[in-house]
Amino acid sequence: MKPAVLYQALATDLSLADRTGFNPYYRRMMRDGRGKISIDQAAFFDLASNDYLGLAADARVKAAMTDAVERFGASFCGTPIAAGYATILADLESAVAAMLGLPAAAIFPSCYQANGSLFCSIADADDVIIVDHYAHASLIQGVKASGARIKPFLHNDIDHLGKQLAASRSFRRIFVVTESVFSTEGSIAPVGEIDALCKRYHATPVIDDSHGIGVIGKTGQGILEYCGLSEYDGIYTASLGKALAGTGGIVAGAAEFIEYLRYNCAGLIYSTALVPASAAGLLASIRIVTTEFDARGGLMWKNHGDLCQRLTNAGVNLKGGQAPIASIFCGSPERTITLAKLFYEQGILTTPFIPPSVPPEQGVVRLIVGAKIDAVAMAELGERISVAAGKFNQ
Amino acid sequence: MELENRVIGLIQSNIEKKHTITLQSDLRQDLEVDSFGTIMIVNAIEDAFGIEVEEADIRKLARVIDIVELLEKKYLQPAKKS
User: Fold this and answer.
1) Is A359 close to B34, i.e. CB distance below 8 A?
2) B36 — contact with chain A (CB < 8 Å)?
3) So what's the ipTM on this one?
4) CA atoms of A50 and A241, how far apart (whole Å)
5) What is the DSSP letter of A347?
6) Does A362 reach chain B within 8 Å, measured CB to CB?
7) b vs e for A310-341, b when ≥16 Cβ sit within 10 Å of the residue's Cβ?
8) Which long-range contacts (CB under 8 A, 24 or more apart) does B41-45 make?
9) What span, in angstroms and rounded, lies between the C-alpha atoms of A116 and A99?
10) d(C-alpha A336, C-alpha A324), whole Å
11) Chain A closest CA to B78's CA: distance in Å?
12) Nearest CA of chain B to the CA of A320: how many Å?
């Protein structure tokens, strides 16, 4: 096939954008470094990013990052196994592990890469990976790449997971994979029960806590704190680019397991190490979460509660998850994009999810308000939300 | 009808939402089954019948009747004498 024919075959179908008169993806925007965004010179409320605690614009985080550039340079220009394992990277690994209460952690360039390369290092055709039906694309891609037998289980369904485990005893290694917080709906997986089932069947749990770290748990430590799993002996992964306002991803767990990954996980061995500015910013973020979660988390939950109240009053169909994520059920892709457009016209940036990101006819618009908006702005945001939702319900 | 009912029962207990399932039900359009959901259904059928369905066959499955016919014609055939 000639390249031109290939590219023609791969042409993106943008007919949905044509039908709805709106393409919400890859909008070009200005960001001012203080958490404000504007599009075509109009100010927008950012309810699309995952900046739960408002740390992306925190002066201390920014100062730590700029200072790190002066101290360590722009990049280590090397992989961790060779020239990139600088002290600040090792410090970050220790800080993240300590925050989580786990023995050790390894830093990857992204959580997508962590999840995408993890399973190839620990599973093959002799093994089975039992994975939540709605697990994140990075987990699915990683699981598929391993060559292990894949068994999805019904979303957050412990009984179904138990049946899958009972039917998997013949495999050499058994892994159970889920997200902690399912970000398109805000539900929290029953991780405590999953962990207990894994113990019963000698399986290893793999929990992606990308939307939990810095967000849930009494002190923001994430899903393990939320579920009271102080002796968790499974595998933990998370993005560092959401509540912690940096870049990169982690895999954390037993010290000997992390040491194994350092010498056997291609996604870690062959990737350039995280840049020093990001590592320094993350260290600052972790310090802030550790000392200020009460205040920041409190504002995040208050804002989320106010937002949900506004949305409920406006008559939209909220999915009602336990995490600080407001997810509005829309159904068809057309209705989903239409609602995102109505919010956009009111100066509110949201995230619409349509298939394949969600199942067929299960489209949602997600709003994360976080702690980055004060009471005055929340009042204005509430007015705009009521207008958009009111039009949607007409 | 025994095989048909068994297949429908297996599908019913391996999809996210309750639906009225008939042999003509389209997995994607009527039962909201995505590609990962199809794997879940096939896993259940494999475990129930003690078979292993080939990847190429899974890709051809669109309706419930396709699963029944695939089982009848290929996977549940008595072994032929050589």
Assistant:
1) yes
2) yes
3) 0.91
4) 8
5) T
6) yes
7) bbeebebebbebebbbbbbbbeebebbbbbbb
8) B41/B10, B41/B11, B41/B14, B41/B15, B41/B67, B43/A151, B43/A152, B43/A164, B43/B14, B44/B10, B44/B11, B44/B13, B44/B14, B45/B7, B45/B10, B45/B71
9) 24
10) 20
11) 25
12) 17
Q: Which pair of tokens denotes residue A369?
A: 């308000």
- DSSP string for residues in A126-181: T-EEEEETT--HHHHHHHHHHT-EEEEE-TT-HHHHHHHHHTTTTSS-EEEEEESE
A154–B34 CB contact, under 8 Å:
no
Taking CB atoms and an 8 Å cut-off, how many pairs form between chains A and B?
35
Q: Which two tokens stand for residue A365?
A: 């618009």
Q: To 10 degrees, the CA torsion angle through A262, A265, A270, A271?
A: -80
Q: Where are the alpha helices (DSSP H) in B1-82?
A: 2-12, 35-49, 55-59, 64-70
Tokens of B37: 């959901």
In the structure, what pLDDT confidence band is assigned to residue B79 with cuts at 50, 70 and 90?
low
Name the token pair of A240. Answer: 């560092």
> Position A143: which residue type?
V
Which DSSP letter does residue A363 get? E
Of B1, B31, B35, which is closest to residue B15 (Cα–Cα)? B31
Q: What percent of chain B has pLDDT over 70?
A: 95
Q: Which phi-psi region, left, alpha or beta, contains residue A103 (left: φ > 0; alpha: ψ -120 to 50)?
A: alpha
Pairing, β A235-239 against β A348-349? unpaired
Task: Name the helix (H) or strand (E) containing A245.
Answer: none
Positions in chain A whose pLDDT score sits under 70? none
The pLDDT tens digits of the residues spanning B57-73 come to 999 999 999 999 999 99
- The length of chain B in residues reads 82
How high is the pLDDT of residue A252?
A: 98
Question: How many Å apart are CA A296 and CA A25, to the nearest integer?
Answer: 29
